[in-house]
Amino acid sequence: MAEASIVVTNIRKSYGTTVRALDGIDLIVEKGSIVGLLGPNGAGKTTLVRILTTLLTPDTGSARVEGYDVVTDAGIVRQLIGLAGQYAAVDENLTGRENLVLVGRLYHHSIADSEQRARELLVQFGLVEAADRTLKTYSGGMRRRLDLAASLVNKPPVLFLDEPTTGLDPGSRLALWKIIRELQAAGTTVLLTTQYLEEADHLANTIVVIDKGRIVAKGTPNELKSLVGGDVLEMHLTEPSRVNEAAQMLRSLGSGEPVIDSELGIVRLPVTQSADALQKAVRALDVAHITLEDLQLRRPTLDEAFLKLTGHRAEMV
User: Fold this and answer.
1) Strands 189-193 and 34-38, how do they pair?
2) Which listed CATH number (3.40.50.300, 3.40.1370.10, 3.90.1150.10, 3.40.50.720) goes with 4-225?
3) Please, are residues 44 and 215 in contact by the beta-carbon 8 Å criterion?
4) What residues does each domain of the chain span?
5) Most Cβ neighbours (<10 Å): which of 31, 254, 298, 301?
6) What's the rounded Cα separation, in Å, for the pair 142 and 130?
7) Which pLDDT belongs to residue 237?
8) Within its chain, how far is the Cα of 58 from the centroid?
9) At what angle are helices 170-185 and 140-150 packed, to 10 degrees?
10) 229-299 belongs to which CATH class?
11) How far apart are CA 210 and CA 44, in angstroms?
12) Of 62-66, 86-90, 105-109, 143-147, which gets the smallest average pLDDT?
């Protein structure tokens, strides 16, 4: 078994007497891997990250980062981790360079070392031309890149990213994905929470799904997709008003319940005997005079796996 960077054992955390945020979490994150943490709002993702980054204390259980306990060795753990969230934790009244130097000084690095590290990060994150501009003039994507750069000033072996690309345009998101992959290639361990299933699918070696404070599934993106069962038959009806009728008619052909998009007139049906199900579906719809605008047989998506595991569509995370 590969060496572990993060080990979580039976972590529980409640807020008051009514809200149990984490209900017995066990998790091992291998060194140099990217683990995606998914779950609906309120599932416990951010609570877990806050415990692992020493910002919260668990009620029971234990967690170790690079071998150090997050409670009893909190000071050491903080030296070994970087944290970047969905809101840029930088000072907009300072320049990009000044922000990075300030973080270096907070880590007790010398002025010379802090300035050198700032220069390295400005180059790595494509911010050299904007280095001496105040953050007030930065775009959202530039601020997010600087925030990620700030989390790497101390060259941490473990990086926590809490929804780092929320609200970014597609181009800025792709740029951050590239940087995250490069960090992993250099040996950094990354724990990523995200509301974008496409992001987890592209970046994560392993995906952990949390719902109601418990881990409900764990595996590679392909392993989670396989939980849907076989392929997905997706039918786009010419008359959206007939989706319920079509779904009821085709239910017996699927390996699971059909999923309906009434607004778009789409029925998605998980199937195992793909070719046979396709032929029977087309014949049944033809007999009922239900016409199709489009028909495709495809592999399941992570969104569909998420729906099966949590009962929520991805838009609800």
Assistant:
1) parallel
2) 3.40.50.300
3) no
4) 4-225, 229-299
5) 254
6) 9
7) 93
8) 22
9) 20
10) alpha beta
11) 7
12) 86-90
Please answer whether residues 228 and 256 qualify as being in contact, where contact means their C-beta atoms are separated by less than 8 angstroms.
yes
> What's the rounded Cα separation, in Å, for the pair 33 and 28?
11
Q: Which amino acid would we find at residue 286?
A: D
Residue 114 tokens, joined: 């802090």
Strand ranges inside the chain, DSSP E? 4-15, 19-30, 34-38, 60-65, 68-69, 81-84, 158-162, 189-193, 206-211, 214-219, 231-237, 259-261, 266-271, 292-298
* 198 compared with 121, residue with greater pLDDT: 121
Give tens-digit pLDDT for 11-33. Answer: 999 998 888 899 999 999 999 99
As a whole number of angstroms, the distance between CA 26 and CA 308 comes to 22
The pLDDT score that the predictor gives to residue 228 is 66
What type of residue is 52?
L
Beta carbons of 317 and 39 less than 8 angstroms apart: yes
